[in-house]
Amino acid sequence: FDGQSAMPKRGWDTVTVPGAVSSWVALSERFGRQSLGTLLAPSAHYAREGYGVGPVTANAWQRQSAALSLGLGFEDVFLKAGQPPAAGDRFRLEGAADALDLIAESNGWAFYHGAIAEELVAASGAAGGAHTMADFAAHRADWVEPITIDACGLTIHEIPPNGQGIAALIALGILERLDLGDEPDSGRAIHLQIEAVKRALADVYAHVGDAATM
After folding, report:
1. Is there a contact between 116 and 22 (Cβ–Cβ < 8 Å)?
2. CA spacing 20 to 30 A to 84: which of 18, 94, 190, 196?
3. 1 has a pLDDT exceeding 60
4. Does the predicted model carry a pTM greater than 0.90?
5. Is-contact 147 157, C-beta < 8 A?
6. pLDDT for 164-214, tens place per residue?
7. Is the per-residue pLDDT at 115 higher than 70?
8. Do the Cβ atoms of 38 and 103 come closer than 8 Å?
9. Where are the alpha helices (DSSP H) in the chain?
């Protein structure tokens, strides 16, 4: 694609059409007892009024600040005067609050067919991205059967690929075959848990993708 031999690590060409909004709508319509506006109101409130940035988040934000300064528009949202927020700073996302309100008012339509889609496509195009309005309009949320494993005396359900839920199941499957002892927080037990997750993620990174093309 566009002369590239591998998926780029940053930029608009790494971004798929977001599925979260269509999932909110589908879940709300199938199982919800409250309106989408009621459900999104707390998120819109914190986006508009702001929240105090915690120290762990501030540290991660600082480490990633260089990656946000690539001239793709991210710095306009996530950096203030070129700097990430410090721990304790109040951070606001008024644009996100407006978007959440519009999503609620249109029951998600604006995100895939209306004003929000138009702004996203325009921003992508301005930075050399390939997104089109047709891409957004064609998006659909999929209902899928969960994948499961019996481990540690429980049945654990996860979302199937291309999500990473399979990594948790692989790790649990490994741990089911090991003796963690009677102290789950002992040094040995924690070490085994970490190694199980590392091996699970290695398989996921090597093999897991869109189920339709795996």
Report:
1. no
2. 18
3. no
4. no
5. yes
6. 899 999 999 999 998 888 888 899 999 999 999 999 999 999 999 887 776
7. yes
8. no
9. 20-31, 36-49, 55-64, 74-78, 94-106, 109-112, 115-126, 133-137, 165-176, 187-207
Q: What is the reported pLDDT for 72?
A: 78
Residue 185 tokens, joined:
């927080």
| Alpha-carbon distances, residue 207 vs 147, 167, 168, 200 (angstroms) | 17, 11, 15, 11
Q: Tell me which residue has tokens 């409130």.
A: 45
CA distances from 49 to 35, 45, 98, 143, 187 (A): 22, 6, 12, 34, 43
Asked whether the beta carbons of 181 and 134 are under 8 A apart, the reply is: no
Which amino acid, residue 103? Answer: I
> CA-to-CA distance for 174 and 14, rounded, in angstroms?
32
- Round to whole Å and give the CA distance between 169 and 163: 12
